């Protein structure tokens, strides 16, 4: 196994890690190069473990390392991960950076409000439910694929009841968005899908964007009612078939 090396001296590397981990705890999601993300991931996991120890020595070490969000570590993150024995962070590959071709990655805290893996799971559940021509509810989890059921149980394992209700409501909202985009003819909803890439980005050239799907660079307001009505009331737009299956 090749060890990652950051070409910094000891003082600069220490300051770099302090900045990255502090930003991670503050924003709960950061984008950086892959080697930096892997190094910051180690420091973040150790600091959360020290925060859970709840001793004066561990608190002093964490407070001296973090630049600002020590209170958030003690008041929010420790409570969020009190039942977890590890694995507080997650890495997502983000392709290579334009220019120097450096590999990029998204480093995020698990179960954060913008959790990427949970967002992908919600879209998967919404799509598989619509393929069975039914609306999603927790009692209908048996209609999902076996792998999706496993991922669902893992994702909801450490969530509170309020967070679980929010999760299920978000799935229903995604279903409504898929149906709206499909019926308006803006995007196709098909069962024939291209194989997914192992990164968050996907080449936009030649890729079919399906109903409810979001790609890199797409505006966040793309799924709003106003954006859905564009092209429908202003001018006729020939879209693919709006059949659900």
From TrEMBL:
It comes from the Eukaryota. GO terms for cellular component: mitochondrial large ribosomal subunit. Keywords: Ribonucleoprotein, Ribosomal protein. InterPro entries: Ribosomal_bL17 (IPR000456), Ribosomal_bL17_CS (IPR047859), Ribosomal_bL17_sf (IPR036373). The keyword Ribosomal protein applies. GO terms for molecular function: structural constituent of ribosome. One of its GO terms (biological process) is translation. Residues 190-245 are annotated as: Disordered. Residues 232-245 have a biased composition (Basic residues). Pfam families: Ribosomal_L17. This is Ribosomal protein L17. It comes from Wallemia mellicola.
């Amino acid at each position: 196994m090749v060890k990652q090396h950051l070409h910094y001296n000891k003082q600069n590397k220490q300051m770099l890690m302090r900045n990255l981990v502090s930003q991670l705890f503050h924003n709960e999601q950061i984008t950086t190069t892959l080697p930096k993300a892997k190094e910051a991931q180690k420091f973040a996991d150790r600091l959360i473990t020290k925060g859970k120890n709840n001793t004066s020595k561990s608190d002093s070490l964490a407070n001296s390392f973090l630049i600002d969000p020590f209170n958030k570590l003690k008041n929010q993150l420790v409570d969020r991960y009190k039942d977890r024995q590890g694995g507080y962070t997650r890495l997502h590959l983000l392709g290579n950076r334009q220019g120097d071709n450096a590999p990029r990655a998204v480093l995020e805290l698990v179960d954060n409000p913008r959790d990427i893996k949970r967002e992908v799971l919600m879209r998967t559940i919404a799509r598989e439910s619509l393929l069975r021509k039914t609306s999603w509810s927790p009692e209908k989890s048996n209609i999902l694929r076996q792998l999706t059921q496993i991922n669902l149980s893992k994702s909801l394992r450490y969530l509170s009841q309020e967070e679980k209700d929010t999760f299920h409501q978000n799935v229903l909202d995604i279903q409504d968005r898929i149906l709206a985009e499909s019926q308006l003819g803006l995007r196709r909803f098909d069962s024939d899908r291209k194989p997914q890439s192992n990164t968050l980005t996907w080449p936009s050239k030649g890729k079919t964007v399906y109903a409810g799907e979001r790609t890199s660079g797409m505006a966040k307001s793309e799924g709003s009612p106003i954006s859905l009505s564009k092209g429908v009331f202003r001018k006729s737009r020939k879209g693919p078939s709006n059949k659900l299956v």
